Structures
1.
Amino acid sequence: MGEITRDLLYRLPKTDLHCHLDGSMRLRTILDLAEQYKIRLPAEHEDDLRRLIVMKDGCSSLVDYLRVFDVTLLVLQTDEALERAAFELAEDAAAENVRYLEVRFSPILHTNSLLPFEKIYESVIAGLTRAEKRYRIKTGLLICAMRNFPAEQSHMARRIHDRFYTFSDAELAQLLAVHTAKVTTKLSQKYPTIVGFDIAGPEDGYPAKDFYEAFQEIINGHLSITVHAGEAYGPDSIEQAVKYCHAHRIGHGTRLIEAKDPSRLRTLYRYFKDKRIPLEICVTSNVQTGSVPSIEAHPLKVYLEDKLRCTICTDNRLVSDTTVTDEYFRICQAFKLSKEDLYKLIIYGFESTFLPYEEREAILREVEPILQRELQVGSGAAGAIPRT
Ligand SMILES: [Zn+2]
């Protein structure tokens, strides 16, 4: 059996289920939009801007990593800019044979020009839909609430802070999360592209359980749920995401490994395995935020040996300077994965989408024979994978 080359990984049909719109723009587009809207960026030349935004050598923490988004958000404040960014992201993903892409973004961060809230959603959906018509890619949209919401972050935040001056940052974030959840639920009845809800931002000090009310709205709206957890905080954060937010998937879950305890019969780790709850794994980003010291030190290898359901994702194509192909290539090299391992991982991705069941099945039926042929694995490999 031949080796796993970058070329092979590029050709294979893939998914990306954890990809932030504002962290995955093209550098050239940021400069174009800044010129178009006369926005002053902290760096004017492409190379300087790249040095500022792209995390080549990592940063000291998740909070540091998140600061970069202040720059990309400067130019993502109009319907036209949002449509373009969404289209280009799906175009870039389609170019490396991503067949299904779930894009996520937080509408509240795009309110600086007082763009109507619903229009913000619709602009991103329009960009994704345009890409779907042109390329062989299917897309879904995840709406993020934010765990914290400093007044300087957006115009809406400033107005709300002014009006509700007795509220703390945390209380306002919770209030805005409920508002975002209500709009998401309502618009999801009209736009099938909206498939789920998430919560993003700093984990430490902003527990998921504080957003219980927002997630209740989403549960009542019968939408899917993923939660950023276990990236910058331990298993408690993941436990809350499951217990209070009813997460169907977990964003990162890097520190779930700390809940592994073979001496105990019932653990959170075991629960994830038994319930087949997918972990959206972003190894490059995890190294850059200091979640793990190196790719080799990432618990992914243990997760795979223990048959946890993992799916490989980019997190932020621009900020992390990565693609889905790159992520697969890095883990195949670091963990010396076999073609069967790779087959299972890619299938896990297609099984873990938030698409309606019939559509999930249809894509699986389409990609399975391609993967079996390209990876020279028999259909028996698929038989080893529990289906949901
Ligand atoms: Zn993320």
2.
Amino acid sequence: MSIASRVKPMTPPLILRTLLPPYRVLRRVFLQVRTRLRCRRFLSYPEPRRIELGPGMISPPTGWLTIDLMPSATFYWDLRRRLPLPESSVAEIYSSHVLEHFPLPELRQLVNECVRVLAPGGIFNLSVPNGGMYVRSYTDASLRAELFGYIKSPPDCELGTPMDVVNHIAHMSGEHRFLFDEANVVALLRICGLPNARIREFDPSRDVEVRRHESLYAIATKPFLTDN
Ligand SMILES: C[S@@+](CC[C@H](N)C(=O)[O-])C[C@H]1O[C@@H](n2cnc3c(N)ncnc32)[C@H](O)[C@@H]1O
């Protein structure tokens, strides 16, 4: 008999197995009701209204509200769903290292939703991993060494080959679904109704310094109906 077959799988005690599923359902319902109530309150706030998508553990500047699948977010919400906000209700949307978590169809749907909730003249400001730079590192050993130096827990980097760093950013242990470069981030924003989308520089007043080496930045404003 092998050792593996003698080791009993760990099962949680009966009380936990009984209570956990209803607890999870109740918690989800609570968070969803709280989100709906907060959305209503959000609309009574004085303008400008600003939201950050997927801040994770990073606190946004004062006055910004957040949407994330974390209970600490103002709006506990799955970004693959229609955003819980009315059309043209938001002055600015910021997002850092979130868009790469969605495959292209969901990504387009999310950006379309951002455009819907932005008011005309509203700003969509974002940062994503610079996939193009990681791809370039495949043939550039010094860039590869530099990028590798930043990777703290390298589950995709154990083979010691030039493709490791590319795999790291492309997959991030299964969390990433899309690779960006300057051309496709601008193309995505333009195809979703933001024709003036452009690459921008790092903004120390808003962007996260620890992500600077791996990021590219873009910005766009929602056109007014009269804009060409
Ligand atoms: C890599 S973290 C980025 C955190 C922070 N913005 C930063 O720059 O370090 C990605 C964030 O997106 C959120 N996220 C990923 N998929 C999501 C989804 N479907 N709905 C809502 N939030 C999601 C995660 O919970 C996480 O907070």
